[in-house]
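Figure S7 source data.
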Amino acid sequence: MYDVIILGAGPAGLTAGLYAGRSRMRALLIEKGLDGGQIATTNEIENYPGQLVDGEESGPTLIARMTKQVEQFGCERVSDTVESVDFSGDVKKVVCTGGAYEAKTVIVATGAHARPIGCKNEGQFVGKGISFCATCDGFFYRDKEVYVVGGGDAAVEEAMFLTNFARKVTIIHRRDELRAAKSIQEKAFANPKIEFLWDSVVEEVNGPSGILSQIIVRNVKTDELSTIEADENDGMFGLFGFIGFLPNTELFEGQIEMEDGYILTDENMATNVPGVFAAGDLRKKSLRQVITAAADGAIAASQAYKFIEAAE
Ligand code: NAP
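Tokens for the predicted NAP complex:
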């Protein structure tokens, strides 16, 4: 029986693991993939306090330090996929592919995933021209053309990163102004490799050879459709989606109170289920950043500790 099981090793889960380990709770961190969650595929970190300076900090470098720090304080870990949970009793049950675990408290920190672009034929071209990770796939588009959907911080920052590879990057945005922070916008407007397609959404994608080579775009003001074809010499191009995220909370449906898929908590990260806490991007909150995820994880772990103390 663990004191606390932490689901997910992004910044929220890792920080919860650090705080749980430091308070000498018997803690288990369960992660199915690589540590870091969304930040593991983020090329540049500019706003996490205490980060390495001069462009030396990436998602992976920051996460590697967090992981090491968690290990130092004795939080146990297992690499496994959660299949179901039962939070109804005093003993919380977590069933994974490789085994079942029990704890007095649980911290849910399973994060979020990229929102699909939402166009016709999208599923056929994911990994064959469509991507949601510039760090992972940007290299494939060396000297090719790339299209980026979105107008927030992620879309504009990742578009700039993609100019390291692509000869031209076109941002397709559904409005005529960006949502991204002004400082990020200024850099993008000054980048000669970046172009903009305003008031536009991607309706359909195609590629007769199985690789993406055609995008049909609709102007939301005029409803006019236009077709973008890959350059003849390239025969293909990249389409990256950065239009926000959806919470990874399906497993907890019917057990924890949510709104639009986001878990509701109080300021102590407590959900409506006693002994179950939530931290990070899957919470309903106003700012989803590494720093707020880390803060959530710290609060959740210290509240889990207090919960156990009060119950004993
Ligand atoms: P976001 O800020 O929610 O922006 C999403 C963008 O996608 C918006 O421009 C939105 O258009 C557009 N969009 C949403 N749904 C769409 C759809 N169905 N079709 C077409 N376009 C759609 O998301 P984000 O950029 O991924 O950022 C998420 C969070 O991470 C934010 O809090 C952001 O500040 C943070 N972040 C921060 C940094 C940084 O600080 N350096 C870097 C990356 C991300 P509208 O503008 O019209 O709504």
